[in-house]
Design goal:
about 400 residues, alpha+beta, Conserved hypothetical protein from pyrococcus furiosus pfu- 392566-001, domain 2, 2 domains, nine-stranded mixed sheet, about 25% strand, globular
Length: about 400
């Protein structure tokens, strides 16, 4: 079952730093240029710990450890004296609509994947090695795992709506406002723990971090077999109720680089219909979203948009849950089947992607419909994984809003 636990969070000291200057986006969407900008923004920006750079004398993991302990000693970072849950709220705007994402920050007992905690995307070994080295160095969870759950009772949701004990607030690069509230009332803590018993949790964003937390737990158990209820048995999570409809799942589009002529290859495959789009449409994502399943927008280096639809045979070699999933069909029937020589990049910013194609740095962008939360639940319950970057949960949670120590 899902076992939640309050904890003594480590947070920035608002008396010594301005929150806007010290938080950063998740490590996996930080470019080298943005990292340099964050370094310049503040000597105490969390990027130095969570996604730092090597210098002439030390590697980035040794530096992360140095900064973490130095900032604790200088009380740039301070640890709460009491065990709390925390409410996390994001007020954001997307396509001229105002929305609020709310969730609970808690420690969640680590379970093997498939035992109440379900992944839905494939992972890579390189990011996992990086996160594991960071966890070893700092003995801490330095960023949140974004997890979703379903509760029609909405007990925790109602508690989060009524929070007033604001601790820290920061603005992200998109102008969204992120707020942290403390939940120390014992009755509310007990009610929250009770509601989550038996609730399955689905990893939305943070698959690599969860798998690394499991690996770290195994390492520490071998070193300290006598430790009971040790800190490494838990991991730091943000938990948001699907029923609150607070987050968005955006598509992550595919940028293709290949020596093959993209348009001709698609036409010659005979597994697709293809038509050129009129130039007067305004939103390719909206257009694709309203099309039939297995339809994709394609922008080519002739500076024209096309709509393709897969009409080929069923992909029977895939698990049934993936055969008619847009992201899986694009991965298997287009990228892998038609372009054996390829490089794939991922982006949610279509204008940025179009610019790369116009500058002949890529050959095509494939625009997908959004993956639905029901697809995530269905695939995850079967123990199956979608291709990498099948979902992009928005808004992204900020790193540096709260840290969890793993020291005994």
């Amino acid at each position: 079952m899902a076992i939640l636990k309050p904890f003594k969070g480590i947070l920035y000291n608002s008396k010594k730093v301005k929150a806007d200057d010290v938080v950063c986006p998740p490590y996996d969407i930080i470019s080298d240029e943005l990292r340099d900008e964050l370094y310049r923004k503040s000597p105490f920006n969390i990027v130095r710990i969570d996604y730092g750079k090597n210098d002439e004398s030390s590697d980035k993991y040794a530096l992360a450890k140095f900064f973490f302990h130095k900032w604790l000693k200088e009380e740039i970072l301070i640890q709460d004296e009491t065990q709390c849950f925390y409410g996390y709220e994001v007020n954001y705007r997307y396509k001229n609509k105002d929305k609020i994402l709310r969730g609970l920050i808690a420690l969640v007992k680590l379970e093997e994947l498939g035992d109440f905690v379900y992944p839905h995307e494939q992972t890579y070994s390189k990011p996992k090695a990086d996160r594991l080295n960071l966890m070893r160095a700092c003995m801490a969870n330095t960023s949140l795992i974004f997890t979703i759950y379903r509760s029609k009772e909405k007990l925790t949701s109602k508690i989060l709506e009524e929070l007033e004990n604001l601790y820290i607030q920061a603005k992200d690069l998109d102008g969204n406002i992120h707020s942290i509230y403390k939940i120390s009332d014992e009755t509310k803590i007990k009610d929250i723990i009770e509601e989550f018993k038996g609730k399955p949790l689905f990893i939305a964003d943070g698959h690599h971090r969860y798998e690394v937390a499991l690996d770290f737990k195994r390492e520490m158990e071998s070193l300290y077999p006598e430790a009971e209820d040790a800190p490494w048995n838990y991991v730091l999570m943000f938990l948001s109720n699907i029923e609150d409809n607070g987050y968005l799942i955006l598509p992550t589009h595919r940028l293709l680089s290949t020596p093959y002529p993209v348009k001709e290859v698609i036409i010659n495959s005979q597994n697709f219909t293809i038509k050129q789009l009129d130039e007067n449409f305004t939103d390719i994502e909206e257009l694709v979203e309203n099309e039939e399943p297995l339809s994709f927008g394609v922008y080519l280096n002739d500076k024209k948009w096309y709509l393709i639809k897969y009409i080929g045979p069923s992909l029977d070699y895939l698990p049934e849950e993936l055969r008619n999933l847009d992201v899986s069909v694009l991965e298997e029937a287009v990228l892998k089947a038609l372009f054996p020589q390829r490089e794939i990049c991922y982006d949610i910013n279509i204008k940025k992607a179009m610019k790369l194609i116009d500058e002949n740095k890529c050959d095509a962008i494939f625009v997908l419909r959004s993956t639905k939360v029901e697809d995530i639940e269905r695939v995850a319950f079967k123990g199956i994984r979608m291709p990498p970057k099948s979902t992009y949960f928005y808004p992204k949670l900020l790193t540096g809003m709260i840290i969890n120590s793993l020291k005994i």
